[in-house]
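Re: the request from the purification team.
They wanted to know what the chain is likely to look like in 3D before they choose a buffer screen. I agreed to run a prediction and write the result into the notebook, where they can find it.
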Amino acid sequence: MKSIKIGLIGFGNVGSAIFDVFNRNADLINNRLRVNLKLAAISIRNLDKAKLISDKTITVYPDPFQLIYSDVDIVIEVIGGIDIAKKIVEKAIQNKKHVVTANKELIAIHGKELLQLAKENGVLLLYEAAVGGGIPIIKSLREGLSANKIEWVAGIINGTTNYILTEMQRSRGEFSQALQQAIKKGYAEKDPTFDIEGIDAAHKLAIIASLCFDIDIQYDKVFCEGIANIELKDIDYAKKFGYAIKLLGIAKRRKEGLELRVHPSLVPIDSMIANIDLAMNGILVFGDAVGPTLHYGAGAGGEPTASSILADVMDAVRFNLLGGNNLIRTGSVGTSVSDKRILLIDDTRTSYYLRMRVRDQVGVMADVTQILAAQFISIEAMFQGEPLDSKDRAEVVIITHQTIEKNINTAIMQIENLHVVDGSVKLLRIESLEFS
């Protein structure tokens, strides 16, 4: 029976979960692969953690590059970050090792060059766990849905922001309160910037879009807006109109080009996406043949991530058994690059939620609707709240029909210049998630 050795670099939450899951399921994994797959080496800088490895058949290296130069066949990288991780992955590939990583930031920013390097060296760089944690979305796009023309993807791909928005609604608290609760429960880091500003989701969307549309990974082309400006009143107003608010990653094919955007969105309250709560992830993919498919599960956490990483390891083993003659449907993205251009956010076509503070007097809405009409923007619904504390001010919420974003931005600038409008106009985008 063929013997294949794994080297694990990193022994934090994910690394230790990989160790546990592999040891627990090693017999099952080996029976399915019909090989002797062994966790042979681990790189751990923390000497106290290194002492926890009681299995004397496992070599522990304090230096990850020592592990790379050992006789392992597959390297798992789970240290995170960019600089050191990139050097580790490059060196492993150059030494003809297959690499499995959960590092979404690394793949989103350097994926193109690393995948090319892997191709040149005849090895695989696999990254299922970089998107959706335990959800096998990358395999679904590469394999199960590979005969489809993907029309669009809309997904909750960051559990932290989904938890915060759920908590705001359930506890009736504002954003800052929900964020502190997320940190307390371990759903958010002490510095939650990457999550709440949408950067983490944008990394993942860039990877998803590359698979859906046969384009290079282009993180720098993804429009990114976070959730820090969402107020409880927005959640309540959205509910009045039949919507919930979620931070979505959206990749959409249009004849003019591709939309790649991450931002808070109003989604129909009875949709599948609207009912994915707390820290769970859900990705809705619409293919021309299969129609809509929902991919749901834990988007983070040690064991869900370990599940995806070990599945990639098993794919690398299958590649080895096939003698490296093909990519067993798990190979590099960007090998057939589309010439589709990435649209600017100004070219986005969708419906909009507008909230504004106005003077409570006759003629105000006539002025506002006249400005919208001049930009060919029609109103689907409108709501005026009770007078505000100042008594002579009221809040108005407008839901528009679909239009181009540059038109809505032009209208907003003109509305904000009206003497009857106080402050800025809040804009949120609406995603109907129509299956057509």
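For the purification team: The longest helix spans residues 13-33.
Please add any questions underneath this entry.
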